[in-house]
Design a protein that fits this description.
single chain; about 140 residues; Globin-like; globular
């Protein structure tokens, strides 16, 4: 029996399922969705009612933000990009982001994903990734 096992051909390697990055279509579609998201996020009046967010919007150019968010999404979804920006906590601590502002951002994000017809499974996975950053972004002092 041992000889039969040793002499049998190797089992075919199972292919890994496609990464979220691959299922989203790669860098081009990700960059388009991120660009559209930043385009609705930056001028949002509800978010900019927070003086710290409004000041950051004036200070950080949207193309710079688009570049970093695209690299981050590419990386965290399994793509070949490397995010080299600051951590979420460091980037957002001074903004005093409230739960209401977090929820507003989620609404805007979901609207952009729907506009681009991102499938339900991929939308859920992206929302899970975004949700994993909440503790580093929403200020407990601002609750």
């Amino acid at each position: 029996m041992l000889l039969a096992l040793l002499g049998s051909p190797p089992l075919p390697a199972q292919e890994a399922p496609p990464s979220l990055y691959q299922r989203l279509g790669g860098l081009a579609p990700i960059s388009v969705v991120v660009s559209d998201f930043i385009d609705v996020l930056v001028p949002d009046e509800q978010l900019n009612a927070n003086p710290a967010i409004d000041a950051a919007r004036q200070r950080v150019p949207a193309p710079y933000l688009k570049y970093h968010v695209t690299a981050m999404v590419c990386q965290v979804t399994g793509g070949p990009c490397a995010y080299h920006g600051r951590g979420m906590k460091e980037s957002h601590a001074h903004l005093n982001i409230t739960e209401a502002e977090w929820q507003r951002m989620l609404v805007l994000f979901q609207e952009v994903l729907a506009r681009h017809q991102v499938p339900e499974q991929e939308t859920r996975e992206l929302l899970d990734i975004v949700g994993s950053t909440k503790a580093d972004i929403v200020s407990t002092a601002a609750q």
